[in-house]
TrEMBL record:
This is VOC family protein. Signal peptide: none annotated. Pfam families: Glyoxalase. Residues 7-125, 141-256 form the VOC domain. The lineage of its organism: Bacteria, Pseudomonadati, Pseudomonadota, Alphaproteobacteria, Sphingomonadales. It comes from Stakelama saccharophila.
Length: 258
């Protein structure tokens, strides 16, 4: 059965060096990224220790780099109709980066941006299968999607209009404002916050679950990445780190509490 409209369904790392990305993330998250691409495009699937798919790693080509693309994590939001969703994105004040295209056997997709310029994909998969790439407590899965935005209320209005997201609760964070939770139906998929200034550029950040957060933090440092925050406990008892990989790409890791 297909995921409800507005659900995160796939995660993708764009990188100039997929081999280095494999060496790093396989060790940090306990993934198995394909050692070699399938087909002409250098695209490698990301598998959990349990053999389920989380997303893919795409090599940035020279053309992409010359066109302004850079390394980063992105997600695909599942929708009922890609073309109708792209129109809704534009109506709600967003824009189109790559207009809809179809890959046989995979589905139809487009790359868009919200009114604050933050990019993501929309997709309708060709098979009517349920994606488990996002799972609140699944090991190797994305457990949390976090948006840091310069216009939190504007972002809420946009994502509600396009995807039907709701914002059922909030947690005050003092001078940083509120941490506002995001839901698709009855499932909380993440939260939004006001992007700190100074701080990393606004954008989506994804937290993937590893078996041991302390080990993940040490592995990040040992493999050439940087731990910017944590390990620290978060509400609910889990512990997290915020880190960057050797290319400087930001990501999060979540693990069980002590």
């Amino acid at each position: 059965m297909r995921n409800p409209h507005g659900s995160p369904v796939w995660y993708e790392l764009m990188t100039a060096d997929p081999d280095a990305a494999k060496a790093f993330y396989d060790d940090v998250i306990d993934w198995t990224i394909e050692a070699r691409p399938q087909g002409d495009m250098d695209y490698r699937m990301i598998g959990t220790a349990g053999g389920q798919m989380v997303g893919g790693v795409m090599r940035l080509t020279e053309a992409m780099l010359q066109g302004g693309a850079g390394p980063g994590w992105f997600f695909y939001i599942g929708v009922d109709d890609v073309d109708a969703t792209v129109k809704a994105v534009e109506t709600a004040g967003g824009g189109v980066i790559m207009p809809p295209w179809t890959i046989a056997g995979v589905g139809r997709m487009a790359m868009v941006r919200d009114p604050q310029g933050i990019a993501f994909y929309v997709m309708r998969g060709e098979p009517d299968e349920t994606s488990t790439a996002f799972e609140r407590a699944g090991f190797g899965k994305c457990n949390w999607n976090e948006l840091a935005t310069p216009d939190q209320e504007g972002a809420h209005a946009f994502y509600a209009a396009v995807f039907g997201w709701t914002f059922p609760d909030r947690m005050p964070m003092g001078e940083m404002g509120d941490y506002v939770f995001v839901a698709v139906g009855d499932t909380t998929i993440g939260a939004t916050m006001t992007a700190p200034d100074p701080g990393p550029p606004p954008g989506w950040q994804f937290y993937f679950r590893a078996p041991d957060i302390e080990e993940a933090a040490e592995t990040v440092k040992a493999r050439g990445g940087t731990v910017h925050h944590g390990p620290v406990e978060v509400p609910g008892g889990d512990r997290i780190i915020v880190a960057s990989d050797p290319e400087g790409v930001m990501f999060g890791v979540v693990g069980p509490g002590l």
